[in-house]
Amino acid sequence: MLDLNLENIRWEFKKLLIFPIPEIVIVSMIFNGTLVLPSIIVLSEGVYVYSFVKNILHSIILYTFMVQGVTIGVMAATIFAYEREAGILDTELVYSRSRTELFVGKFTALFLVGIIYFFTVVLMLIVYNLRGSWLIESVSSLISLCLPMLVQIIFIISLNIFISTISDKIVISILSSALTFYSLDNLLKYSNPQPGSFLYNIPPISTSAFLHVPTEAAGNLIVAFIISLCFLLVAYLYFTRFYEVK
Amino acid sequence: MKAVEAMNVSKKFGSIIALDGVTVSFNNGVYGLIGPNGSGKTTFIRIMLGLQKPSSGKILVFDKDPFYSHGQVCSLIGYLREKCAFPKWVTGIEYLKHVSRLKRVEFDKNVLTYPIVKGGFLTRKISTYSAGMIQRLGLIQALIGNPSLIVLDEPSTNLDPLGRIELIELIKKIKNGNKTIVVSTHILEDLEQICDFIIVMKRGRIIAKDNLEKFVASFSSDGTLANAYARVMENA
């Protein structure tokens, strides 16, 4: 029977919220916003305001697409590999009723963060679409964007949990996760070149793939989802059966 | 029911034998675990608490396998890790409350009245703590829920002289007929004041175990634990 302790989830979630996400977003927003500064000189005030807002919104979407994988990867590496490296995990292992309870707590917290990302992006896209964004043209294009994004979040969490449970050091965990991700991408590219790349599952590329070759894009998503479940299962079995502190 | 029962427990790290057929049981009382560096004390403690898995043999803590599931008995255990570390983003009190909720026990504010945590530092973020304060927090979190088995690995590390005295007083205060306290340390003068039993380890084996008075009487020429320990190590 699954012995769930909500304290584990609450604690891990609180831990993840201390990551400097707002700072990263603000910096990327300022960076993207300043890209249009030269246009102030030649364009009217109205156009400047429009361009600036557009670039800020665009930067948030870009951030969420591109950086969320890295952020969640670092979070996963922190709650497993870093805590093992620092010795923080020892007391949690001793005081938890079972390792399953601890694993479920950490996974659920990461998944909640991923879901928050997901809804942030959906919200931003809806706001952005008021300006006539190319990303959302119909309900089907919204689904074609959201579904890959959800699978992508699950994939990134599973891969990073898997790597970080078997890693001793946080740096090795992060690097290994990135290399594994791109290795999988290359493998799938060889097996299914059009549009076989795993990166085709990452928005906004996936949107284009879905609109143009929906069957193959859906196939990629299913493969990615199955790989995610495998990673998660192996990580769970390793953590509950073999995981030892150093 | 014995607090800890180890039966022929061995642990290998590659070709290195860290524990070699350790058989021992802990009932009520204060046990001093001593031995040279690398003798297997910390490895034994980690196996006892389910942090590592024995290569062979069996260990039971309150009749449960500690590695796979503590189950209900997790609330009966208190543990101070060697070189203890805690999340730096919370205050000491927040961490103590977290441990209470993890163990599913009521947070007992009485632990905050112990002299070892005086000075009000527990209301500050752990990131601002000195090494000694972290050790003091570690000692107090091991007492949350009034556990029946308390394992202290190098408890006097980083403590100032007054802190060491407070630690000894604390152990004297909490030890009673129902508790099993295991203390691993190199400071034998401290053990003389608090221990009921002594277990000596060398190269992964237990080479001597007895109650403190008998151990000192059997091996020491000057009536001190340090002298008895030196004799035992010479003869082993």
Give a written overview of the molecule.
The complex is a heterodimer of chains A (246) and B (236). In chain A, helix 4 (45-86) runs antiparallel to helix 6, helix 7 (139-166) packs across helix 8 and helix 9 crosses helix 10. Chain A is 80% helix and 0% strand. Chain A has 246 residues and is an all-alpha fold. Chain A has 10 helices and no strands. The radius of gyration of chain A is 20 Å and the shape is globular. Chain B has 236 residues and is of the alpha/beta class. Chain B has a single domain, classed as Rossmann fold (3-Layer(aba) Sandwich). Chain B has a 6-stranded mixed beta sheet, sandwiched between helices. Chain B has a 3-stranded antiparallel beta sheet with strand order 2-1-4, covered by helices on one side. The A-B interface holds A 5, 7-8, 11, 15, 18, 86-88, 90-99, 240, 242, 244-245 and B 46, 49-53, 68-72, 74, 77, 79, 81, 83-87, 89, 98-99, 101-104, 141.
Give the topology, please.
The complex is a heterodimer of chains A (246) and B (236).
Chain A: H1 6-17, H2 21-34, H3 38-42, H4 45-86, H5 89-95, H6 99-129, H7 139-166, H8 170-191, H9 205-212, H10 214-241
Helix pairs in contact in A: 1-6, 2-4, 4-6, 4-7, 4-8, 6-7, 7-8, 7-9, 7-10, 9-10
Chain B: E1 4-13, E2 16-26, E3 29-34, H1 41-48, E4 56-61, E5 77-80, H2 92-103, H3 131-141, E6 149-153, H4 161-174, E7 180-184, H5 188-194, E8 197-202, E9 205-211, H6 212-219, H7 225-235
Parallel strand pairs in B: 3-7, 3-8, 5-6, 6-7
Antiparallel strand pairs in B: 1-2, 1-4, 8-9
